[in-house]
Amino acid sequence: MAMPNAIDAQRLSMAKRALLTAERHAADLNNRAARIAGVVMYDFAIEATMKATISTLGGTRLAKDFPGLLSQLDQVLADSNQPSLQARLQILQLRDIRNAAQHGARYPNRSELAEAKRNAYEALAELFDRGWRVDFSSYSLVSLIQGDRLQRSLARAEMELNLGHWHLAAVWAASAYFEALNEATEPLVGSLSHSFSLSPVTLKSEDPDGVAAKMLGESLVRMQETLEVVAMGLDLGTHVRIRATVGEMRTIPTDGPPLFHDAKSHISEADASFIFNECLQAVLKIEDRVGDIFEPFGMAWSVDTEVDDLAEEMDVNEFDADAAFIPEMRHFAFEDTPDDSVPRRIFLVCALRAATDHLNPEIPEHSKILAVTDRFVQSVRRYRNDLSVDETDRANYKILLACVAKATGKDLASLLRNSARYPR
Fold it and tell me: What is the rounded distance in angstroms from the CA atom of residue 209 to the CA atom of residue 203?
């Protein structure tokens, strides 16, 4: 029996992903639209798998309507000397439920949802077996994850789930979920860790023990976490259940499983299966939305290599900008700023933008400097909760200033003299 080719593998993965999505919708019994979406997705999963099976067993042109697909499936099974489809009745029953919901505007009830789920699982199990001798229940979607580290964590979770290690399966899956969520949303909500150290000065006289400050900090973290979930289009109820089961992740040791300080003492098989499936689906959805989770929306953590390549190409280094003096600031190195309530990185970005105002994007060399500068600004803005500027960012900033000075033939003082750019 042939292994799925690239197109069929994509269809099979899509079918299983659609099935998991259908289960989530169907479970929301109080939401009528979700119940309709559930049976539609169950039916979609079967139709996608039917098409893949027909292609694998020698079908050439796929029929455009469902009865035609079913007849075509019967024909290719007969041509390959396989018995007739045993799940034919289940497929037709599910199609009837789907048609009543989608075209008849009749909301499926609890028993119809249960029947749709059972029929979908039976049909998909037979189709996977007929086409590729693949066990549908063990067909993995983990290979669809793009991020290597996240894929390894979820693969480990799946392995532990198959071995019956429910606690380990849950914490490995949850670690991938929380890491993906935090990394992908940091450009939007900032780093959660910074809020834990929040200690408002206004509270110190009335709150000498820091209790109120700590409560405020924890409230902000909860708000950030809620915003993360909403921004990625994830389900808050599912997030709360995952958090209630595994607790809060503290660290991922190099030689052991992730550590969650307040996980449930006894995580059941149902808990582990739920967490694995939901975390896998969530990571896939986050990647669909932001692309590379570790460079979400195309924002890089670091542009060191790009800056170094530009410096080599233009024959400049950070020491060429040592004499730089920024208007309204005592010293370029950012030890002090006019207003300590303004993060120093904001001044860095404003100064750099003031310099690049002198570039002409129509000139190729200038255009390249602008492109690298934009990437650098995206990178440093990811740290916008931090009031300091690290040595690497300072060096990259100085190199980019030197590149602008060399490209424009202007001295650094004139490049940076744009008071409208700086915070007041």
Answer: 10
Could you tell me which of 309, 292, 310 has the C-alpha nearest to residue 301? 292
Give, in degrees to the nearest 5, the angle at Cα 30 between 113 and 248: 100
In 3-state terms, what secondary structure has residue 259? strand
All structural domains of the chain with their residue ranges: 6-139, 143-290, 304-421
pLDDT in tens, 170-191: 999 999 999 999 888 887 776 6
Q: In the structure encoding, which two tokens stand for residue 48, read together?
A: 């996608």
Domain spanning 6-139, CATH architecture? Up-down Bundle (1.20)
Token pair 């505007």 in the structure block, residue:
105
Please give the share of the chain, as a percent, with pLDDT higher than 70. Answer: 84
**For residue 182, what are its two tokens?**
């935090």
Question: How far, in Å, CA of 367 to CA of 378, rounded?
Answer: 17
Q: Give one DSSP letter per residue of 138-203, joined into a string.
A: G---GGG---HHHHHHHHHHHHHHHHT-HHHHHHHHHHHHHHHHHHHHHHHH--THHHHT---HHH
Can you give the pLDDT at residue 381? Answer: 72
Beta pairing partners, 259: 251
Provide the pLDDT confidence category of residue 200 given band limits of 50, 70 and 90. Answer: very low
**pLDDT tens profile 138-166:** 888 998 899 899 999 999 999 999 899 99
